[in-house]
Amino acid sequence: MATEIQPKPQTRTPVLLNKIEASQDVVNTAVIIPKEDGVISVSDDRTIRIWLKRDSGQYWPSIYHTMPASCSCMSFNPETRRLSVGMENGTISEFILSEDYNKMTPERTYEAHQGKVTVVLFVLEMEWVLSTGQDKNLTWHCSESGTQLGLYRTIAWVSGLQFDVETRHAFVGDHSGQVTILKLEQDSCSLVTTFKGHTGNVTALCWDPAQRVLFSGSSDHSIIMWDIGGRKGTAIELQGHNDKVQGLCYAPHTRQLISCSSDGGIVIWNMDVTRQETPEWLDSDSCQKCEQPFFWNFKQMWDSKKIGLRQHHCRKCGQAVCGKCSAKRSTIPLMGFEFEVRVCDSCHESITDEEWQSSFPNQSSISR
């Protein structure tokens, strides 16, 4: 009987449409203007620039505006054409853009923070401006009156902020690696819960209100998908970068998560596949495979006259194992491990073709 040869899945690669090169310093945020061939960018060079595509196919700045301090972040609402820009000096400036995107009119200034503004969000449904800063404060202001409505002090400075309009929950990611969920009211807030799964600081957050799933990226190179709506505490880990995750964006119509990293790569994750939750690492004083003692287990080392070994963990089952019992490496895409990770010998033998190949045809990467 002849063996059926299966074609190797083809990796889909994003296509570069255009490149805008003009800023003299780091571009901190850039957004596409919906239904327009346009881009808004803010930079450390203190400029706000609005780029519109000309008949030549090139992007040229229709607006070039210099701010009093470096622009650290921004939020743009296409419906109202309201642009909110956070700066290094703790100030947030708001502008209204004209219909042709050739003019912007100053609307209001908020003295929101004592240090750099790290994230700013305009919530149209609430008429709120939410912001976080290096002063470790989360603030929300009324966009109609400009008055501050509330303030919450975080344990570390915040680098990720998302808001759910339906429940009024704010998701706050900070430099301690913790994600905090707060319930915001008109003039107060209450702590809902906190959770921590990253070993590095949280660098980006992305919220999908339809599936009620929160994605967090970190300097530990990983992404975690938190199932908030399922109320089961499920957390799926995604490993596809070699450096800190810098940005996350979710496309609900295709159920794809786009992540970018300091490694220069963009990864597109297919979130329409069933993934397995990564196990918690188990504690043990000896290898859970061969029962050799770990180096801190002095009693067993003395009784067995054996030298203690270094502890490792299998990424598939979570068991504490020695190096000899976990010498194999494997990718496990269904668990989010797109790079080879340590697995124990028994788990390496049990990994199926489905577990190994499932997400490869749906993941693409592009490097600088």
Which descriptors would you attach to this protein?
368 residues, mainly beta, four-stranded antiparallel β-sheet, 28 strands, 5% helix, elongated, disordered N terminus, disordered C terminus, repeat, zinc ion binding, WD repeat and FYVE domain-containing protein 2-like isoform X2
Compact summary:
The chain has 368 residues and is mainly beta. It has helices at residues 298-304, 345-350, 353-357; strands spanning 27-33, 38-43, 47-53, 59-66, 71-77, 82-87, 91-97, 104-111, 117-123, 128-133, 137-142, 148-153, 158-164, 169-174, 178-184, 189-196, 202-208, 213-218, 222-227, 235-239, 245-251, 256-261, 265-270, 312-313, 320-321, 328-332, 337-343, 364-367.
Residue share in β-strands: over 45%
Largest sheet: 4 strands, antiparallel
Helix amount: under 10%
* Tertiary shape: elongated
Oligomerization status of the protein chains = single chain
Kindly report the average pLDDT value: 85
Number of helices: 3
User: Would you identify the regions where 5 or more consecutive residues have pLDDT less than 50?
Assistant: 1-10, 358-368
What is the rounded distance between the termini?
47 Å
Tell me the number of strands: 28
C-alpha Rg (nearest Å)? 24 Å
Strand line-up in the sheet with most strands: 1-2-3-4
Summing up helix and strand content along with how strands pair, one would put the structural category as: mainly beta
